[in-house]
Amino acid sequence: MELTAGQIATLLNGEIEGDNDLKISRLSKIEEGKTGSISFLANLKYESFIYETESSAVIVNKTFEAKKAISATLIRVENAYSAFTQLLEQYEKIVKYNKSGVEQPSHVGAGTSIGTGGYRGAFSYIGKNCTIGNDVLIYPQAYIGDNVRVGNGTVLHAGVKIYDNTHIGNHCRIFANVVIGSDGFGFAPQPDGSYRTIPQLGNVVIEDHVSIGANTTIDCATMGSTIIRQGVKIDNLVQIAHNVEIGKNTVIASQTGIAGSSKIGENCVFAGQIGIAGHVTVANRTQVGAQSGVNRDIKKEGLSLNGTPVIQLKDSLRSLAVLRRLPELERRILELEKQLKDNIH
Amino acid sequence: MELTAGQIATLLNGEIEGDNDLKISRLSKIEEGKTGSISFLANLKYESFIYETESSAVIVNKTFEAKKAISATLIRVENAYSAFTQLLEQYEKIVKYNKSGVEQPSHVGAGTSIGTGGYRGAFSYIGKNCTIGNDVLIYPQAYIGDNVRVGNGTVLHAGVKIYDNTHIGNHCRIFANVVIGSDGFGFAPQPDGSYRTIPQLGNVVIEDHVSIGANTTIDCATMGSTIIRQGVKIDNLVQIAHNVEIGKNTVIASQTGIAGSSKIGENCVFAGQIGIAGHVTVANRTQVGAQSGVNRDIKKEGLSLNGTPVIQLKDSLRSLAVLRRLPELERRILELEKQLKDNIH
Amino acid sequence: MELTAGQIATLLNGEIEGDNDLKISRLSKIEEGKTGSISFLANLKYESFIYETESSAVIVNKTFEAKKAISATLIRVENAYSAFTQLLEQYEKIVKYNKSGVEQPSHVGAGTSIGTGGYRGAFSYIGKNCTIGNDVLIYPQAYIGDNVRVGNGTVLHAGVKIYDNTHIGNHCRIFANVVIGSDGFGFAPQPDGSYRTIPQLGNVVIEDHVSIGANTTIDCATMGSTIIRQGVKIDNLVQIAHNVEIGKNTVIASQTGIAGSSKIGENCVFAGQIGIAGHVTVANRTQVGAQSGVNRDIKKEGLSLNGTPVIQLKDSLRSLAVLRRLPELERRILELEKQLKDNIH
Asked: Looking at the complex, does the CB of residue B105 fall below 8 Å from at least one CB of chain A?
């Protein structure tokens, strides 16, 4: 991308102070800017950077008053932070999601319909009887099985694997090498010590505006559906087992695992490397700290939890503080025992 | 799939009570059934569902006596649970593993032999001098290196990567994006602080009836073989390091990791997110709780373990119970110290 | 590979004792050797094996004095261990990284330049305006986006996904299904409880001699670069979040996760399943035990840490030892309370 400072000012409905024709090719943090960068200053805590920045242009609030000379061209807007975010989003559209057309070879099965717009990369595979919406980007080496539905504006990155019968909503982003709809982990023990596979015949349903990070796995239901509700954001390397349901707008950080049949509420926030046992229910707005283990139902909404097994965050922090003084505690107990023995008997 | 209730009754050697020509297109839990579904009732704890179900047909035990009117057609069999399982398995064969033939483009290297039956999807790759058995399903974008052996009836799902010299037995299922035979993590520290790669020249041997979940990784041995014995079931996102050996019928849940050269016994059950250190031996029938850490040999068979590092499950549960009372314990010690000071001196 | 014992002796600058024409086709541990194997004996702790080994040849130190009859042909060298390592490296070059040429179909975008030598497997994809060095091996189904740079001698294994604008140095090894440059996990909460995606517009920079294990994910920076310095070794299923920087020669074992914007020093050693919080700084030469949680800056260099949250290893081991005696400690406190009550009042 290369725009002039003037074009950006027009885009952001801002006023320019400096060189209208300045060429901008990059967005940078104000402390990392170089010639050709545009940055922003919203929080005056970082004001000193604006007097030293090498960025060619800086977006500032209309109310900003410089205390020293500034070499960068300024673009004054109502709200510098949201203007910069708007610029980031424009820039993303131009540089990240700009693919179109069909590259060959790519495979489309019989009975599959594909909407207008969109992109299909080389070595991508779409099975039979699928319904693919408009403006869907399917990157190279992505795989879509049979009877899959994908909504409008959804992006399937390189190497994504979508099993048969999966439903994916509109405006989802599924990142590279994600696997959706693989078999749930269900085996029935046999008298001879071996296990018999329990067929996994359900599917996965993903609603709109869901984001799923690279190499994450979401298993199909044994029967029925594993369900990811609208607006859920899932990070990389997360495991979602069969028959799980995740409520609207819940956020799940990397390497967390949710075991079979658990029901997670809306607007929960799960940090990284958490384990959630099977068949538990977690209430709305539950927050869970990193590496915690949730082994029971969380019925009250809005709790902050931590630890294995989870307890309330503030109790967990107190326990952890004592934990590191355990050897000292043991010495104190021993000392008490000695004193008591010496003094009483 | 669409069968009549009569066809299903014949298949299950059952007797029909109701509409012989009823069309069945789906298997459902009794509480989730809709028109066209078939369900089952085995445990009378769930009996109330049969009077309310929308399923068109329900499989019940021969001995079942209805206490109210039932709208669904009944199929009476000796054992409703195992009849339903049998139906699931039939259904799975029909709807899940029904691919055949060869899609193009797909790659087969010189000197490779492929048995009869089976399926090779588009963009699948098989290297040189491989021996692929009969009825092997190789999904799109799967990769098989050189000198690989794959037994009869094995399924390699989309995007699976099998490195050179791997041996895979009969009737295994390897799910999407699994990596088998990648380099073990071995580096020799050098005097200048850098590391020199220790070549990893062994392979992976997987016996019959093994299941490996999506995005799991199994490294090749440094020399010799990493070995997964018959009937082992491995979930998604599991890490098996170089030179590990896993005994017959052991089950490993998601996100567990087993470090280099450890030997795991038969019929063990490992929950999710467990870490097992390198060079340890774990006895047969060991059970380990989720998020535990096994850092030493487990010599006695059949123990239930938990915690980091693992101790016996019942001891671990007691310790965890006290753990959350630690702040209170500390206060009690302080109180004792005060009392002793006040009273004795 | 098939070499004679004589050829190997010449290669290693050693002296042969036995059959010069012996055919060697395999490298084995001395206790696992078979006819056709070559092994080594360096540590005399394992001396007994040399009298029983079935290996056809054994590399020994010049100074080795046999105490019994040995059936294997001996190759005497200055240092048996490093000679064997040298042989492993030669063998690796011959058997593991021996691909060349271009298989079709494979995709190369406009404006991309590819150096001499090297390999491109079938169904591999290279985007536009990339610069690929000499002797780069790109295995089947690997994906390289636009504007990517890959240095000389680097290996991209099957199914690797490299996003746009990534820079990879010389002599790196990226194993199967690794994802580099996927979006960082950044979302801004909105008043209605939903989240707005923060565009991730930075890239990933990987310096020379870096190794990245199968199914690992490294996210691009929000702005700027996620940086993996020279000589870093990363195991399988590791998560590196956006804007992380990892110092030279740091080693990270499997299933560890490093959250956004953290800066890791040089020559650190991280065991498996560790979690490192976002925005922390970890000093050079820090060692962290398996399953630990690093939730704060580690400022002093060279510490050995363990636990969640991490404390010094020796303190952690003491605390863990007491942890399993917690129920006993609680009983002792109760006993003290009773005694005090009985005796004082």
From this structure: yes
Burial C294-306 (b: 16+ CB within 10 A, else e): bbeebeeeebebb
Distance between CA A253 and CA A236 in Å, rounded?
A: 7
Give me the amino acid identity at A112: T
**In the CATH scheme, what architecture does the domain A3-95 have?**
3-Layer(aba) Sandwich (3.40)
- CA separation for the pair B27, B4 (Å, rounded): 13
Q: Which residues of B97-121 are buried (b: 16+ CB within 10 A; e: fewer)?
A: eebeeebeebbbbeebebeeebbbb
Peptide bond preceding B309: is omega within 30 degrees of 0, i.e. cis?
Answer: yes
In whole angstroms, what is the distance from residue C261 CA to residue B327 CA? 34
Question: According to the model, what pLDDT value does residue B339 have?
Answer: 87
Closest among A326, B229, A299, A250 to C315, alpha carbons compared: A326
Report the alpha-carbon distance of residue B167 to residue C308 in Å, rounded.
40
Q: Which tokens sit at C258?
A: 């490093």
- What are the extents of the domains in chain B? 3-95, 101-317
Domain B101-317: CATH class, spelled out:
mainly beta
Residues of A in contact with C123 (CB under 8 A): 123, 141
**What is the secondary structure of C25-64 as a DSSP string?**
-EE--TTT--TTEEEEE-SGGGHHHHHH---SEEEEETT-
> Is the Cβ pair C96, B215 closer than 8 Å?
no
The residue of chain B with its CA nearest to that of C328 is: B319
- Treating both helix axes as pointing N-terminal to C-terminal, what angle do B313-323 and C326-344 enclose, rounded to 10 degrees? 60
Residues in chain C: 345
pLDDT digits (tens, 9 = 90+) for C170-193: 999 999 999 999 999 999 999 999
Strand-strand pairing, B23-24 and B3-4:
antiparallel
In a mutational test of the A interface, the residue from C162, C183, C341 whose CB has the highest number of chain A CBs within 10 Å is: C183
3-state secondary structure C104-173: CCCEECCCCEECCCCEECCCCEECCCCEECCCCEECCCCEECCCCEECCCCEECCCCEECCCCEECCCCE
The count of other CB atoms within 10 Å of the CB of residue B21 is 9
The amino acid at residue C313 is L
Three-state SS at B313:
helix
- Both tokens of B139, joined, read 């999904």
Q: What is the mean pLDDT of chain A?
A: 95
For B200-221, what is each residue's pLDDT tens digit? 999 999 999 999 999 999 999 9
* CB proximity list for C283: less than 8 A, separation 6 or greater: C265, C298, C299, C300, C301, C302, C303
Q: Coil, helix or strand for B18?
A: coil
Distances in Å between the Cα of C31 and the Cα atoms of A256, B241, B246, C49, C55 are: 41, 21, 20, 6, 8
Residues in C closer than 8 angstroms to A326, CB to CB, are 318-319, 322-323, 326
CB contact at 8 A, B327 and A318: yes
What residue has token string 């956004």?
C260
Sequence-separated (6 or more) residues with CB below 8 Å from residue A17:
A73, A74, A75, A76
Amino acid at B281: T
Question: How far is C306 from A323, CA to CA, in rounded Å?
Answer: 13
Q: Is C239 near chain B, with CB under 8 Å?
A: no
Single out the residue of A86, A72, A73, A64 nearest to residue A13, CA to CA. A86
Place B341 in a pLDDT band, splitting at 50, 70 and 90.
confident
C89-114 confidence digits (pLDDT tens): 988 888 888 899 999 999 999 999 99
Q: Which of A157, A167, A209, A242 is catalytic?
A: A242
Let me know: does C276 contact C282? Beta carbons within 8 Å: yes
Nearest alpha-carbon partner for B40 in B67, B68, B12: B12
